[in-house]
Design goal:
Number of strands of chain B: 53
CATH superfamily of the largest domain in chain A: P-loop containing nucleotide triphosphate hydrolases
CATH topology of the largest domain in chain A: Rossmann fold
Strand content of chain A: 25-35%
Largest sheet of chain B: 8 strands, mixed
Order of helices and strands of chain A: EEEHEEHEHHHEHEHEEHEHEEEH
Strand order of the largest sheet of chain A: 6-7-8-3-9-10
Oligomer: heterodimer
Number of helices of chain B: 30
Low-confidence stretches of chain B: 489-584, 1069-1074, 1147-1155
Mean pLDDT of chain A: 86
Helix content of chain A: 25-40%
Structural class of chain B: alpha+beta
Number of helices of chain A: 10
Strand order of the largest sheet of chain B: 5-4-8-2-1-14-21-16
Mean pLDDT of chain B: 82
Radius of gyration of chain A: 22 Å
Strand content of chain B: 25-35%
Distance between the termini of chain A: 33 Å
Helix content of chain B: 25-40%
Number of strands of chain A: 14
Radius of gyration of chain B: 35 Å
CATH architecture of the largest domain in chain A: 3-Layer(aba) Sandwich
Low-confidence stretches of chain A: 293-297
Number of domains of chain B: 6
Chain lengths: ~300, ~1200
């Protein structure tokens, strides 16, 4: 296991209990951390990258105790934060060079090679002289991941990396991550976009309200929703009623009515046919049904 | 290495960010632009600039870096806190935070990055300044650039960066941090300034940083300590910032190391602050102790030393000295008190080679001769001592607040030093008590210490490093040989000497010919005697031994060789006595300088000075006096400039000497006069009891290096200016002569250093006495008046002999009141004795004393005559030359001469003086022609309008000029007035006087000095001429029947409009200091916004000639005179006009004001329920009463309203009158 988290708690000074006794073992490879906004993903990420101290608990990263051996942990870490902007006054290559220097690459020639290589691999070599402030959103993300990768870290933590990207950039970015994950590194991808995880991760955790709601593979997660996804054709007048009764996943206009997909254990009073679930369905099922039920319990 | 790598990486990219910010770029451009313009103007431009900067090249980096430092300290506040703000705002920083570098590496890298930018800027600016320095032709002090950079820029930047970052981390708000820091900067810059011994002066605006070219920095320890305060505090704040930095440290408790380090740095900084302050307070404590010790011994038995034989040996850091003295007991005792600098340790006192017991109590040396020595009996004894001068012992009489006052010229702040002692330079003035002197130094309990004791001195000095020693008297060793040589041999000889010797001196004022010496005989007037200068050939008291030798012209005999210690085989040449006209043989004086110097005073002198340095001499012999400039090697910037006028220099010197001697009717009696260049830090204080400051020593003036503090010493510019002023119509030589004269006149000026302060409408000028005023050479080093009861007596006589009049008209006009008038008002409130001790009135003390002197001798002067009385005084002084003359005895003698009791008025000095007031009438001049004889009868009526007797000085100016050859006792005399007495002063003259000056001396009149112009001379023929004299007039009146005058001083009949409401900011900007005097000065250029009361002798007034002045305006401000009309009838209405300055000179003399309109005052005359406009054109009207119009007034009150609506800059409300037809 690359990361071992034991009984991790974080309580903010305002009393918000952001992480509640979290324990898990994160294996090598691409790990997805899924959860709605406010679930505690970013808090967990910031603790893992040593930007924040947990209130209690232990974290081992590749054998280093995160609380006592921060320098060692930081030296094997690459991080792309969620709300990532640039010092607009740095040029693209300068930004990477800066990151490379801070990671301990003191040999100028090697550093230049690494920077150029990384710019090539993220497709930014042609804009290396451009000020970072003038890059497009996708380019900025790629530059972000480039700076996280420049020193070949063993652990890469990426927080909400595809938010705000167009589909093409998103796919490109996912592929980039997938390609990196093949190089025997651990990538923790925190996101609330299910598609990011389903297409790349081999292990995942679902977080909700500071707790781990699910831990396993995306396929296991998907399976939990089998037989719970239904397709129905309804009239326009029924839609508000159904929307109140069941979580509606898709709504497609069809002739005079609608073709919709809902998540439910069973459907009463309507003609519905089951359909195969995907990870998104499973996520909705979890969020709307199981978690709510757990809470109610 | 990785730590350094990390720091440098962060720094590198922090610098990039900063370099690319517009804020920094704009600052960079502005800084470069400003400094370029500044250096162009002050350094490169021919017409302006600071001489101090050119004379002492170290000041170039000093002032430039100080200016730059101020700018960058403010900008650094913004920039240093900016990086934390941007870190906070952008998550971007987090991608760097997750790297393994430590917090310290990150913060230090950030600060180093910012700092690096500024340091690079500084270096760039330094290169720029060096370029200007080279272009200007001023030599470059390379080391100064480095030193000032380290002293000024580095500590300030580290401190301000540390402070801003630390504060930002504590306050967590950039805005609040800015406000606090900018407030702090403003507070330290504008309010705290140099207070608390400039402890808070982190930007070095007040720190004395001027570096001498002779001794470098005189306050190295203090400077380093002061700068360490801010460097250490800065490092402390940076360490604190690392501790407070909001990023998890790499190790759990790692940041606490930085907290500890921060505490260490801050504590060290505070310790340095403590050191800084305690060094000063400790010195103050020692001064108090020294004074107490003096108080303890001031009444103990004393000996007068009539002969000193001092043998002093210079060592790198100390001196050792052996002094043989012949002393005369002033009273019978066995133990006698002497004073010697407490830094000097006495090792032995012997009498006839037998040890004599002695005790030392700080500065006091008590010698116990083991037997009673009768009064007037003399003993010979010897003293051995060595050590280093304790400078803190000097000037015990100067109050702490004056000691702490800054010593500055323009923006250059200079350290105050009273003596110097290191291996390359030494300066001991008498104030250091470097040799034992009788009695004590300053005592706060008994003025006995002020007595001057005149002694003969023989001084033998052994110097190190081949330095020259200078002192008073004839140089007996090294000897000089006068030889006559052919011109070509001279040249050859010189060339050979230059090659072969190290300390050869060619001491000459380079002239047109090869030797450049001036034969005094060639320049001397026929007959040798001059007007106003007594015969020098005679054997006068006080000037013995003319046949003796002088420095630079030493004895030809070699009999002093026995005194020599080691001697170096080096020779030098001093050219002497070459007549320019004489093209044949030349007379050369060869002097062999070595490490031994022997001086012997020509006649008794009160004190001895010792200067040791690498000096060279330029001299010229004029009328048996050797005028020399002793400058340090490499400081001769004047010879090339004055070479073309070398032939005329003796004549110029002679003329100035004649002028000074005749002005005071006192004689310069020394055989030498030397300007000795001393380090710029040498400072002397004004003494309340004497004119002589320490810069003025017998036959010697200690002059700041290259005359750097004196603008007249910038001779190259002086010559350019002279040519410009003359419109280019004079030759280079003539310009050089004028420049030399201007320089020499500096020694004639009584005052120097005008200090200006200005608020809107009000201006204040104050002057300091000129330390280089030559008067002490004529008086103080020969005479001394002493009184235990009145220690001020010597000063009183000095001021009386100088006959200072407080007639700096322009200063009075600016201040609204003269210092004499202020002195009068003070004397009315407090007794003279109290005022003498009042530190707050220190600046007015000379005025008070001068008035007292004038008044004290007024009756005597009247009885004997102005000039005659002064001549008597000088004669009495001359009879008591080289002794202490008791003031009381002097008064008795003078009283006998003048037939009056001069002691009696002293009793009044212990009480406040009730001031008389006078009414001064208008002078009446009648030109009477009887047959072919024409005379002018001058009549002036003056009334003492008070219950107190008084004296008035009347001066009738016949236009003979200052120091004119014609002396008439009637022209300048004192006229006493009894209470309520009126006198008509009648005098008859062959020509019309130009004007009459009335000085009411001690009186409540304002102004006390009234200049009455003589206008309207009445012509009459064939009638008897009036008898001359001062005639008492009974029942005199100045009122004219049918005439009513209302003056602005009339509180019931004169009213001003309420002031306009102005905003808070203008009020604050234009605020006028509340001064204790009712009358203020008024600036012609920036008149006051509110009616401001000022005085001038051209205003109307019975006792006080005052008026209200206001800036011109819309007419919203008015002044109203309410004139009671007793009888209805036809009246003429007059207004009292004083022409404003703008109409007196310049472009506006054509009758138009500044805006081109008529120079008019607008009035409204309200009477009988009616209102009429009236105008006065100030250009066309005469000064004095000017008619506004003719009116028929009924039996009522007439109101005359003056509006501030005028084209003139200001409007003056003075007096109106109505005269019945």
């Amino acid at each position: 296991m690359s990361i071992s988290i034991r009984s991790l708690n974080k309580v903010y000074p305002n009393g918000n209990h952001a992480l509640k006794n979290i324990s898990m073992e994160i294996p090598t490879g691409m790990f997805g951390l899924l959860g709605p906004n406010g679930a505690g993903k970013s808090t967990l990420m910031r603790i893992l990258v040593a930007l924040m101290e947990p209130s209690s608990g232990e974290v081992d990263v590749f054998g280093y105790n995160l609380l006592k051996e921060r320098r060692e942990v930081r030296s094997i870490l690459g991080y792309l934060p969620q709300d990532f902007r640039f010092f607009a006054k740095y040029k693209t290559y300068e930004f990477l060079d800066y990151a490379a220097r801070l990671s301990g690459m003191s040999n100028g020639r090697k550093r230049r090679q690494a920077v150029d290589g990384m710019l090539e691999s993220v497709g930014l070599f042609d804009v290396r002289e451009r000020y970072a402030g003038r890059l497009s959103g996708g380019m900025k993300r790629r530059l972000g991941i480039a700076q996280a990768l420049i020193h070949n870290p063993k652990l890469i933590i990426v927080d909400e990396p595809t938010t705000g990207l167009d589909p093409e950039e998103r796919i490109r970015f996912r592929n980039l991550l997938a390609k990196i994950s093949e190089q025997n590194v651990t990538i923790i991808l925190s996101t609330h976009i299910v598609g990011d995880i389903s297409s790349t991760c081999n292990c995942m955790a679902l977080m909700n309200r500071g707790e781990i709601a699910f831990f396993g593979s995306p396929e296991d997660m998907r399976r939990t929703a089998e037989g719970k996804v239904w397709r129905m054709r309804i009239s326009g007048d029924d839609l508000p009623l159904i929307d109140r009764k069941y979580p509606v996943i898709t709504t497609i206009p069809s002739g005079t009515g609608w073709e919709i997909q809902v998540v439910a254990d069973e459907i009463e009073g309507y003609d519905a046919e089951p359909c195969p679930p995907n990870l998104e369905h499973a996520y909705v099922y979890y969020m709307e049904k199981r978690l709510n039920r757990w809470i109610e319990d | 290495m990785s730590k350094l790598h990390n720091i440098l990486s962060v720094a590198r990219y922090e610098s990039k960010l900063l370099m690319r910010s517009w804020f920094y770029r704009i600052f960079l451009v502005l800084a470069v632009l400003f400094l370029c313009i500044f250096n162009l103007v002050v350094l490169v431009s021919d017409d302006s600039g600071f001489w101090l900067m050119k004379a002492l090249p170290a000041n170039i980096p000093y002032v430039n870096l100080m200016l730059l430092n101020t700018g960058q300290a403010i900008i650094a506040v913004f920039l240093s806190s900016e990086f934390l703000k941007s870190d906070k705002k952008l998550d971007t920083s987090e991608v760097f935070y997750v790297h393994p570098l430590s917090n310290a590496e990150y913060v230090i890298g950030k600060i180093w990055g910012n700092l690096g930018i500024f340091i690079r800027l500084d270096l760039f600016i330094i290169v720029l300044i060096i370029t200007f320095n080279l272009i200007s032709g001023v030599s470059v002090d390379w080391m100064a650039y480095l030193v000032y950079f380290l002293l000024i820029c580095v500590p300030t930047l580290i401190y301000i960066f540390g402070l801003s970052v630390g504060l930002m981390l504590i306050l967590k708000s950039q805005a609040v941090t800015f406000i606090l820091l900018l407030g702090y900067i403003a507070l330290t810059l504008f309010y705290i300034g140099d207070k608390f011994y400039y402890l808070f002066d982190y930007m070095v605006y007040n720190l004395p940083l001027v570096k001498s070219t002779i001794i470098g920095f005189s306050n190295r320890t203090a400077l380093i300590n002061h700068r360490m305060i801010y460097l250490l505090l800065g490092l402390g704040f940076i360490s604190l910032s690392i501790f407070l930095f909001r990023r998890l440290p790499n190790t759990k408790y790692g940041s606490y190391r930085w907290l500890f380090l921060s505490l260490v740095f801050v504590s060290a900084g505070l310790w340095a602050s403590y050191n800084h302050v305690s060094a000063i307070t400790k010195a103050a404590k020692m001064r108090r102790l020294y004074t107490e010790v003096n108080n303890q011994y001031v009444n103990s038995p004393k000996m007068v030393i009539d002969h000193y034989n001092i043998s002093l040996e210079q060592h790198p850091q100390t001196v050792s000295s052996e002094v043989e003295m012949r002393a005369v007991a002033l009273e019978k005792a066995s133990v006698f008190t002497f004073c010697l600098n407490p830094g000097l340790t006495v090792s032995e006192v012997t009498e006839n080679d037998k040890a004599v017991s002695f005790t030392r109590d700080h500065q006091i040396l008590s010698v116990d001769f083991g037997r009673e020595i009768d009064s007037d009996d003399s003993v010979r004894f010897k003293l051995k001592y060595s050590g280093t001068i304790d400078e803190g012992f000097c000037y015990l009489d100067i109050p702490a607040e004056i000691l702490q006052e800054e010593y500055a010229k323009e923006m250059f702040k200079i350290d105050k030093k009273y003596s110097f002692q290191d291996k390359n330079y030494l300066l001991f003035t008498p104030e250091t008590y470097w040799y034992p002197r009788p009695g004590t130094s300053y005592s706060s309990e008994n003025p006995d210490w002020q007595q001057a004791y005149f002694s003969h001195f023989r001084l033998k000095v052994k110097t190190i490093n081949n330095l020259k020693a200078l002192s008073q008297g004839t140089m007996k060793w090294p000897v000089a040989r006068r030889i006559t040589v052919e011109p070509d041999r001279t040249e050859r000889g010189r060339a050979g000497l230059t090659d072969s010797t190290r300390n050869r001196r060619v001491d000459r004022f380079s002239g047109k010919d090869s030797t450049g010496r001036f034969d005094r005989n060639a320049e001397r007037r026929p007959g040798g005697n001059r007007e106003g200068r007594p015969d020098r050939g005679g054997n006068r008291e006080g000037r013995p031994g003319r046949g003796g030798n002088r420095e630079g012209r030493p004895a030809r005999s070699g009999n002093e060789r026995r005194d020599r210690g080691e001697r170096r085989g080096t020779d030098s040449v001093a050219d002497k006595g070459k007549a320019p006209a004489e093209k044949g043989r030349k007379v050369i004086t060869e002097v062999s300088y070595d490490s031994i110097f022997i001086y012997e005073t020509d006649f008794p002198t009160p004190s001895l000075t010792l200067v040791i340095g690498d000096y060279e001499q330029k001299s010229v012999d004029v009328d048996e006096t050797l005028f020399s400039i002793w400058h340090l090697k490499g400081h001769d910037y004047f010879s090339p400039v004055f070479s073309p006028i070398a032939d005329t220099i003796p004549a110029q010197i002679r003329e100035r000497r004649r002028s000074i001697e005749s002005a005071y009717s006192l004689d310069y009696s020394f055989g030498r006069f030397s300007l000795v260049e001393v380090p710029v830090q040498f400072y002397s204080y004004v003494r309340t009891w004497t004119q002589a400051q320490e810069v003025m020593q017998p036959e010697m003036v200690l002059f700041p290096e290259k005359g750097s503090l004196i603008n007249e010493a910038d001779i190259a510019r002086g010559i350019r200016n002279e040519k410009n002023w003359a419109g280019g119509e004079i030759s280079e030589e003539e310009a050089a002569i004028r420049t030399l004269n201007r320089f020499m006149r500096m020694f004639e000026r009584t005052e120097s250093n005008f200090n200006w302060s200005q608020e809107r409408g009000a201006m204040n000028v104050s002057v300091k006495p000129n330390a280089y005023f030559i008067f002490p050479q004529l008086y103080n080093f020969r005479y001394n008046i002493f009184s235990s009861e009145w220690p001020v007596s010597n000063r009183l006589i000095e001021l009386y002999l100088q006959d200072k009049t407080d007639n700096n008209d322009w200063i009075r006009q600016m201040n609204g009141i003269s210092n004499n008038e202020k002195a009068n008002l003070l004397m009315e409130q407090s007794p003279f004795k109290e005022l003498l001790a009042d530190m707050e009135q220190r600046d007015l003390l000379d005025n008070i004393t001068s008035l007292k002197a004038s008044y004290l001798f007024a009756y005597a002067e009247r009885n004997v005559g102005y000039k005659e009385y002064r001549d008597s005084l000088r004669a009495v002084l001359q009879r008591n030359i080289f002794t202490n003359l008791r003031f009381e005895n002097l008064l008795d003698t003078l009283g006998m001469i003048a037939g009056t009791d001069l002691r009696a008025p002293l009793e009044t000095w212990s009480h406040p003086v009730p001031l008389p007031v006078y009414v001064v009438g208008t002078p009446e001049v009648i030109q009477i022609t009887n047959r072919d004889k024409e005379v002018f009868v001058v009549k002036l009526q003056i009334t003492n309008d008070s219950d107190h007797d008084g004296v008035v000085n009347v001066e009738i100016n016949m236009g003979w000029g200052q120091g004119g050859a014609i002396y008439d006792p009637r022209a300048k005399r004192k006229v006493p007035f009894k209470a309520h007495e009126t006198k008509n002063l009648v005098s008859v003259w062959d020509e019309a006087p130009r004007n009459i000056n009335i000085n009411t001396l001690i009186s409540a009149n304002l102004p006390s000095l009234i200049n009455l112009p003589v206008n309207n001379i009445i012509r009459e023929r064939n009638r008897p001429v009036e008898e001359e004299g001062d005639f008492v007039v009974e029942n005199a009146s100045y009122d004219t029947p049918g005439e009513v005058i209302v003056d602005n001083e009339d509180s019931t009949l004169f009213v001003l409009s309420a002031p306009d409401v102005v905003g808070l900011l203008p009020q604050w900007l234009d605020q006028v200091d509340d001064n204790s005097f009712r009358y203020s000065g008024v600036s012609n250029w920036r008149p006051p916004l509110q009616w401001t009361l000022t005085t001038n002798d051209k205003y109307y007034g019975r006792h006080v000639r005052s008026a209200y002045v206001i800036k011109n305006g819309s007419g919203s401000q008015t002044a109203t005179w309410k004139i009671p009309v007793l009888d209805a009838g036809q009246y003429d209405l007059y207004y009292y006009v004083r022409k404003p300055d703008e109409l007196r000179r310049g472009r506006n003399r054509d009758g138009r004001g500044r805006s081109g309109g008529d120079a008019e005052y607008q009035f409204k005359v309200r009477y009988d329920g009616d209102e009429e406009n009236a105008y006065i054109n100030l250009q066309r009207s005469e000064e004095g009463w000017s008619i506004l119009g003719a009116y028929f007034f009924s039996n009522d009150t007439v109101q005359v309203v003056l509006s501030n609506n005028s084209k003139l800059r200001s409007v003056t409300a003075d007096a109106v009158k109505i005269v019945r037809r």
